[in-house]
Amino acid sequence: PDRHNKGQPIYATIDSAGKQSTKFVTDCSEEHANSLRCIEDNYTNRDVCQPFFEAYKAAEERKGRIAWREMLNEDSFSKMILFGIILLLLCYRSYAAFTSSTRHRSVSSLKATKPQLGLLTFDLDDTLFPCQQVVDDADVVLLATMRDIGATGAQKNMIYQAMRAERRKRAKPITYSNLRMRAIRRVLASDPGVEVNTDAVDKCFDAWLDERQESANRHLFPGTVEMLQAIKDKYPGVCIGAVTNGRGNPLMMKKIAHFFDFCVSGEDDNVFPERKPSPGIYLAALAEHEKRSSTKISGTNIWIHAGDDLAKDVGASARRGAVPIWVQINEQLSDKPPAYSTATKAEAKKV
Question: With the C-alpha atoms ordered 85, 288, 246, 212, is the resulting torsion angle positive or negative?
């Protein structure tokens, strides 16, 4: 039976003003749990789990269609992003027309200033796919790999406790990869039956990272592929890139790899520790665009950045010259700090 709740909260949360604060919540927990159990049991041959992945994907697509229909009377993520891009370009054209007319510029001059979409960048986590579901899948494979090499007592909470402990030891920023690898080493070392060495740590981390990419590819938000195709069709010359603080990489995701020209990560050697919201990561994205285009970003060759974080994506990219699109998919604004972070206190204050 369809256990979805027509896009309405299963348990409505009422705020102090008496208004419903809970947004669209639906129940795909059974399909998700079945997928995780299958991955855990068959982590070396995940192809057998495809029926569970398809069932979960279908449940998520139903959820997405219900929520977007309620909010926007639309069922397509692609239409939303594409509409935002077209609207921004129209606004730029209107502004160009206004400024040109007030300065009594010629028609030929006006045509010459018509803006074009030169660069389009996306955040990844919670913009193109749900971060928590992807990390959950990757954690299942990580634990299965750790147990396979002898750490039979390894548990998820041990990994995250070790990550918090490693983070508290440091005043300087640390990459997500380095933090997780240190946590893996710590948990492996806690099991007397495991010989801890670099190869063992690398094997576990690589298994986690591979599944992170595979899971992201499986859990792309409904309409993501269609949205990217529509953009390529309408703006065939646009350069498309990803700007992320984490280890997601669209070039490693089969469904969308062919749409992307580059991916800049906050862990790249030429970026870290200048990850979002620092300007360094966006400057690196602009540099990647310049490698591929003879035209720099300017008033007539614009850059649009889409992301879910108001500070790290919208504000930070705008300061570097981008026209931002704020993507919010079934998310609530919250002042609650994350359970753990690799950022320093100084970095957190900037956000």
Answer: positive
- CA 144 to CA 257: how far, in whole Å? 28
Q: In this predicted model, what pLDDT tens digit does every residue of 145-186 receive, in sequence order?
A: 999 999 999 999 999 999 999 999 888 899 999 999 999 999
- CA dist 324 and 122 (Å) reads 10
Token duo for residue 5: 């709740």
Angle at which helices 156-168 and 131-148 cross, to 10°: 100
Strand partners, 122: 242, 306
Q: CA-to-CA distance for 101 and 49, rounded, in angstroms?
A: 61
pLDDT in tens, 181-238: 999 999 999 998 898 999 999 999 999 999 999 999 999 998 899 999 999 998 999 9
User: Virtual CA dihedral for 334, 336, 341, 345, nearest 10 degrees?
Assistant: 110
Measured between alpha carbons, how far is 327 from 347 in angstroms, rounded to an integer? 23
CB 285 within 8 A of CB 265: no
> Which amino acid belongs to residue 331?
E
* φ, ψ at 126 (rounded to 5°): 65, 15
Spatial separation of the C-alpha atoms in residues 164 and 166, rounded to whole Å: 5
